[in-house]
Structures are given as structure tokens and as C-alpha cells.
Request: fold
Amino acid sequence: MSVVATRLAHAVAVVFAAYSVSFFLLFVLPGDAVLARIGTTDTIGQADISDLNLDALRTEVGLNDSLWRQYFDGITGLLHGDLGRSLVNDRPVTELLGEALPNTLALAGLSLVVSVPLGLLIAVLAVNPRSRAIRSLASLAPSAYVSLPVFWIGILFIYVFSITLGWFPSGGSQSASALVLPTAVLGLLGAAQFAQVLISGLRTEIGTTYAAVTAPAKGAGRFYTLVRHCLRNAAFPFLAVFGLRVGMLLGGTVVIEVVFSRSGIGRLMVDSVKSVDLTVVLGLVVVLALVFVVINALVDIGYALLDPRLRRQSAVEGAAQNQEISS
Amino acid sequence: MTEPEQSGSPDILTVSDLSVTYRREDQIDTALDEVSISIPRGEVTAIIGESGSGKSTLAHAIVRLLPINGTVTGGVIDFEGEDVLLRSDKAFRPLRGRHIGFVPQDPIASLNPTKTIGAQLREAFKLAQSPLPPAAVEEQILQDLREVGFDRPETLLRRYPHELSGGMRQRVLVASAFSQRPALVIADEPTSALDVLVGQDVLRSIHQARTRHHSTVVLITHDLALASRNADHVIVLERGRVVEAGCVSEVFAQPRHRYTRALLASSARVVDGRVLTIAEAYARRAPGDVTSGAVPSAALDPAIRLAGVRKRFGTARHGTQAVDGISLEVPRGSTFALVGESGSGKTTTSRIILGLERADAGEVSVLGRDVTSLRRRDLRDLRRRVQVVYQSPFESLNPRLSLGGIIGEPLEAFGVGDRTARRRRVADLLDLVQLPAAYVDRRPRELSGGQRQRVAIARALAIEPELVVLDEPVSALDATIQAQVLDLLGDIQREFGLTYFLVTHDLAVVADVAQSVAVMRHGRLVESGGVADVVLQPEDDYTRALLAV
Amino acid sequence: MTDTLLPPRLLDAELPDIATGAPLDEPRPRPRRRLKELHVHLTLFAALIFIGLFPSLITRHDPFDLDGRPFTSPNGTYWFGTDEIGRDLFSRVVHGLQISLFSGALAVVVALVLGSIVGILSGLRPGGWLDRILGIGTEAVMAVPSVLLALAVITTYGRGAYVAAIAIGIGEATGFARLVRGVVIQAGTFTFVEAARTCGAKPWRIVTRHIVPNAYGPVLAYTALNFGLAMLAIGSLSYLGFGEAPPSPEWGVLISGGQKYLAHAWWVAIIPGVALTAVVVLLNRIAYLLQEDH
Reply:
């Protein structure tokens, strides 16, 4: 039980820290957001703001209040679930997020569902077959795919499957077939990342004595040992990294939404940055941080509960960890 | 797939002209060179050799568990009348577990940490496709565990490996190896990772299982005493070749090959074909031989003085009392040995003496100074007079430095002399430890274990200390090399009048080298005194057990 | 439990890797071959840097000149064809290399320096209060997808490849921090480090002579890996419209500009992506080779 409590407390601390870091970046560091807004909108050529009173704008937005005041307001707002209002259209940020998030989560979730089994398959192919050719191909493929720019892969897929072959639409957020290509891109990306981690874990496990000597000495065959011993144990370091990877996948999802002209967090993000809508940007940061943190906390809790090695750590180990390095 | 049937021959396994090579980087190493052996049915055969002899390779080759880069390049392995090398990998599998059992070497790494003991024992039955129904399997597992010395095996089944001690884990592995009642069981160094007394329990369990199930056992070991006490036959390997084979008592009494003779001589405990216990060997030695003589009086300023020293790791509720009230005195110019098995607290004690750990309570006085209250700078000053030789020659030397750099480190750190003077000193030190002067530019990876340990000794002596703490200085070395390094240490001590604080688990080493000894167990001293007294007239049962090895 | 702390014997040296009877894993390429391959790749990379510094040496047209007909497919004069307003794509791609390489380098330097400082401070006293606080901070930065973090920075400071690079660098610093922390902690457990202490070496000497030389290997490999990741991230940001502005020949800009014309001039969007991929693959391969070597 204490594991769960510490983990949750840790998660809360991280969300607050994420908020603070972003607040720091957006509001504290030298850089006048209002001027920057004018600057950017000018370059990108959006609304006409020539008759804007800069000072009035700042007061309205609250940028003239002391920084601590703004921070405090922000934190109290956060605790109440209030993320403020958009600087551009005055709608509550939570509302804007509520509209955009479901679409993004759907795409991300679907990609995840695709990528886990696919990654598993690739990892097993990279490690088990007797043919060296298959193993090499399967271990190189993930690292190759991860080297590719996600947005470019999306464009490539559009070119091949949409324009040339005409099988799927190149964009849109309504139809099911519009989901296919973006999910494929992200699913492959997720699979590649998972495969990389699993392959490394499996290789370590295969080298252990219990997998290499003890199990075969009882009569185990290759595949049996791989699945019943190696895969089971490799799942633990895999889980550990899983949470981190989800963050990267979210980032990829956001970009892919723009590539495929889907509505969701991606477009919200791009628009709010272009119009320097600080509160929305901050709100986005907080929400995504929250998602990341929740997933990580769940993974950690699951990890601690499942791995028998962690259940009873000796105090001696704890003491040894505190060794100093300076003489 | 044919099942091996008991052939009528007296040998259950015969190996003829077996050759095995390893591919390593760009070269090919020969591990076994046309090795031929026969294992008599129903008895215990020990295969003896030092490192590089190929004995582990032979064991793994028989069960077809060679590493990836190992290849069998020729020969025949005849098991129950069939050349099993001719079987395909898949066809060989059924032999493992059901007909040939294997006890691996390292109990820590040999069990899956995420599966219960019960699950791993049951697995043996499943993999061997045992026809027994589940209830019978459970019954047999419990019975097997009782056989290897567990009183209440039911409690064991639901535990995980990390909750068991090393000795317990190894006994579980023994039970597992015998669980399918194989005709042949190979045990690869089953006790080398364990303390001596624990290892004896494990060997006992092997004997009990073997007699019960009428199995043949092959014991791979480097330990002559172990072979002598546990085997009927012995095969001696040197560098991939069989140099001698025969009945244990005959081979030990009248070794024919030069290597066997050297091996037996290096342990100095083999007399008339029998390996004496440490106590017997000591008693046999002529009084003049022994380096001890009278125990020097510690009345004057002792080199080390500990009084009531305590050290605890962890909290009051979850922790270990590593050192629990130790008091001892080490006279200057002598060798004091602190003996104990792992977990006894001997290493912690030595670290307290060196100032690497701080005692919770008690007095620690080294060369007249109270170590517990020293500040960092003063501690560093003390280091000029107290140096260390660590246990592992592989880990205590920085792989990126040249030998010259390693040995000269204390000189540079304390700013002794200028560059030329230091270089000369390093050359002198290399000479002192009997290494060629040309080695000064070599890296540790180019040296053998024994050579590396000499470098470690040279480094310890560089700054001309008065006291040297030696933590298991020879345990990681082969028997023949051990003797050489110990001799070197003895010579150096006499020449420079050094005091040695020796930490070891091996009482045999102590008997050769020390004047006073203390035996430590669970953080306390169970016995101490002059070596002659303790070895010849031990008062404590634990000491007696250690001496009866 | 404490029965089993006797050291491994040299006998184990006979069996370098243990595995089952049939190979489940690949034998690693021999070190010498690896070193050669590494040298080849490093030379290639050096060539790329050279081209990045002096792009005009291999291009025949000016990247901003509209001297060709728009949408010509790759041919003898225009090796990569021309874009929607007639500029030579080849020279644009080559000039874009400069921006990608150097902004990527900036990102990596920021990440390395920041991450190393945090990692070393955390690793010196693992479990201590500084370690915990830095840990929470690191996780906080990790919690935000780096693209979003970069956008947050760009919101305030305006766009540009180098602003983006600094932002990406801050995000990537978290990975370095974890790695360096782990490396420092592990280095502390090396026996020879403690041996140096007992020889009287002072902390600075221990760090420079014993810890760093034995620990920089993984960090070096990770740096190469991150270089590639940084370039991808900066390309993403430019694609979204937050890196360089047109008419800059930065690759992300090229790709986003060309997406509209995929149907009849695929090369405008596709070829710059191939270039980006090629450089990143090279860097990843270098990272992989560095990993096992040191």
C-alpha cells in the first residue's frame, strides 16, 4: 500500500513540477509574450492587430501582475481544475482541451493496440529463428524505422497508399478509413520502439544461466525457454521503459495529426502557438504531463506488484546505495 | 526417437578423441584436444583441473550445452552404447533431464528469479514428459527435497530464489537434477561459489541422492581435497588433455604424470594418497618449518587495536549487525589473520580499520591513531602508512592505465619525489614482485590473474607503508599460483618488517602464513590466539569444523 | 542472503558466453572489423560536415534563384528536379544540410552539458535530497513531449531552427541526465576507484583519471544517437511551421512546402526526407558501433 501512496505523491509532484517548468519558460524568462505574439502573427499573417493597445492587452491577460501572483493564480486554478481562458477566443481552456483530446487519445490508443503485438512479433523474430538472415533483418528493421522522420513517413504513406494506389483517404477525422494510414504510421513507430527495447531485454535474458543452462538441462527446447523464461523476465525492463515511450508516442501522434489534417491536440497546439495563446499552451502542457505521469505511475505500481524481486528489498542494499564517492 | 537402454558395459559413458574449439575474435582456441575418458557406472568420478584445463568445457560438451562460439571438431561420445554426437539437436533434447542430469555451478544465477521454487521443480517433470499425475509429482518433489536436507519442504515451494541462501539454492538444484532419476548426473563445480561448510552439505545431498537412485555422478572440480573425499575415480586434465586417470587413492598416492605431481605438491596437504585436514597437515609439519614460533608480544604499541567495535547496516528493525563487539590486537611486524565465511563480518572489519567504513561504537586504533575520530585530511595522511591489497585482481586495477601508472599512483598522489625518482621506484617495485621491467607500459588485460595480483602488491608497497591489509589476496587464483604469491608476500614482510592484517576464509592459508588468528562468525569472534594453539587445540566447534576440511 | 560471496574463479574464463545448444543470439562482429566500419562511417560523417560548412562547393545553382521551370522532374541539369517556383532542389537540399547539422549540434551540446551537470550532481549522492529533487525535475521535463516543450519555448522567443534547437536540447537533456547518473553511480562501485582512494588520490584525480576514462563510452554512443534524434525533432518543428521560415532551405520547410504537390511533383516533399533519413541512419549506426567498442 505504501508503494501506491508514494507513487501517487511522486506523480502529483511531477505534474506540479511540469507546470512550474512550463510557467517558468513561458512567463518568467525574458521575452515579452505580447510582443512575440505580435511578431509571430505578423510573420504568419493572421489577424490584423494594428490598433492593439499593448498595455491594455497585457493588463487584460494578467501579464502585468507580479509573477508570483500569476503563478499562484495558476496553481490554485489548477487545483480547481480551472486552466484559465484562451487569450484568443476567451473560451475556457478545459473546454478546448475537452474537444480536442478524445480524437487524439483515440488515435494514440489504437496505435498502441497495434504496436504492442507487432513489436512482440518482431522481437521474437529477431531472436529465435535459426536463420541468421531473418534474425538480422528483424533486428535491423526497428532501428531503421526509428531513424525515419515521423512526419515524412506519413507523407510517404499518403503518396503511396492514397495518391498512387488510392486505397485510403489522405486526411480527415470522420471516417474510419481515414484512421488507417495514421494508425499504420504510428503503430509501426510504436512497434519499432517496443521491439528495440524487447530485443535488448531478450538478449540479456538469453545469456543468463537459468535460461542458457538450467532450463535446457531439464529438457527445454529453444522456443519454450524463450517464451517461458526469457520473455517473461524481459517484460519487466520493457515495462519500465514503456511509460517513457508513451510520451514519445504522444509527441508523434500530435505531429501526425497535422500531417493528416485531423482534428485533435495537434491542431490545437499549432494554432495556439501561432497566436501565442499562452494559457492554452500551458494547459496543453499540463494535460499531456498528466497523461504521461498517470501512465507511468500505473506502470510503476504494476511493476512493483508483479516483480517478486522487488517485494522485499534488503536494508543492506539500501545502505550500500548510499555510499559516498568523495573521500 | 530411441531411448537409451542400459547397456551391459561397466562404463556408462565413454568419450573418445573428443576435440572442442572456441572461436574468439580472429583466433581459434583449442579447449579439448582428443580427450578420451570413461566413466564407470554407479560410482563417483571427479574431473580435476585448474583454469583453462577444459574440464567445464568437457562437462558442457557431454550435455551439448556449449556456448555459441564452441564447436565439437571431432570424436565420439558414447552414452549407453550410442554415439550421442550423431543425434540432432532436437533428438538430443529428451536425453537431458531424463537420462543425464546437470547441476550448474552458480546457484545465484541458475534459478529464474521470477518463478517460485515449486514452479521450477515442477517444470523438470513437465519438460521430461513425466507420466506421473500432479499429485504424485508434488509428493515426489517434497520427498526429493527432504532427501537433500530440507526439514519442511512444503514451506519452500512457494518461495522465490532470492529468499533462499546460496547453499539452499544449490541443494534445490541438486534435487532438480535428480528428480527424473537420470542414470548419469554431472555436477559442474557445485560448491565453488559456496562457503566450505555449506559446500559440504551440498555434497552430502549429492551422495544421498546418488545412493538412493543408483546414479553415476561426475564431479567437476579444482579442489583436490574435495575430489579426494568424495570421489572413487579421478581424471586429471591439463590444458585440454587428459594427463592421468584412475582410482583416487592410487593416483593421489602415486601420481605418474609430472603435472599431477605438481598439482598435489602445491596443496601440501596430500600425504600417502590422502588429503589431510588442515589440522593434521599443520601438526605434521616439522616445528622449524612453521613460520609462527612464539607469538610476538603485543605489549608495545600494537599496529592495530580494536576494542568493542560494532557496526550495523540498515535500520534497527531491518538490518544486519555486521560487526558485534570485536576486540583484537595485532603486534607490529607480525601477520594476523581474521578468518570467517561470507557474511561473518570480516570484510567490514577490515574496512573499518582502513577508514572506509565508520564504526558505530568501540575503539579503533591503527598505528597508534584513533581512526574513528579522524577527519578526511588526517585519514588521508594515515593512508601513507596503511595500504590495501584487494581480493579481485581483475577489478582492483584500472583497465585504462599502464602498470607504471597503476603502481605509481600512490607516489603521484602523495607527491613523492620527481618524475625520474618515481619511475625508478616503479622499476624497483616491479623487480621486487618479480615482474619484468618491460611490463611497465603494459595494460592489466595483458596479464594473468597472478601477475595482476603482483601488480596490486607492488602498488600497495609503493609508498612504503608499515601496515598492509590483505583482503582475500589469493582466493581468486589457482592453487599453484597461490603458493607463489604467498611466498612473495612472506619474503617482502621479512625484508621490510611489515605488519600484515590478512582477511580470509581459508584456514589452510592461515596455517602457512600467520602467527595469530581470530575466527569470526556472525559478527563475533568465536576464537582467537596464536596459530599453533588455535589449529592444534581449537576450543570452539565452529573452528573445529573449519579445520576438519 | 550471505552464503555465497566467494569470487568467481578463473575457470569461468573458459566459457566466455553461455548459450543453449543452438544459437539463439548472433555472435558479435569481431572488434577489428567493427573498428574499420566505425572509421568508414566517421569519415563519411566528417565529409558531411565539410559539405555543410561549404555547401556551394558541390552545388551548381543558387538555392534561392528561380532559374528553372517549376516542377521539372529530376534530370541532368537539376539532379533533384525543381520545386514549385523553379528553384533547384538539389542545391536547396545541400544548403539545408548546413542548417540541420548545426542546429542539431547545438541541441546535442545543450543536452550533453545540461544533462551531464544534472547527472553528475545526482549520481554523487544517489538517494540524497539533491538526487530526489533533480529526479522530479527531470521527470517533469520528460513528462512533456519534446515537441510541445519546444513549442512552449518558441511561443515566447519566436521561431527559428536555433531556438528550436535549444528547446529540443533541454528536452533531450533528461535522457543524458539519467544516463550520466547511472554511469556515475556504477563508476562509484568499481573496486579500482576505491583502490585509488586508499592510494591517497584526491577526488578530482579520481574523477579525471579513473571514473571518466572508464565511463565515457556509453555517453559518447548516446550523444551520437541523440544527434540524429535532435535533427529529426528540429525537422518536425520546421514542418509544423515553427522552425525556419520560408524561403529557408531547411528540410522540414521543404517537406511541408512540398506536401501540397505530392500528386504531380512527389520529389519536392520526398527527397529532402530521404536526405534527413540518410544522415540519421548514419548517426545511428555510428552510435551502435560506439556502444560495444568502448
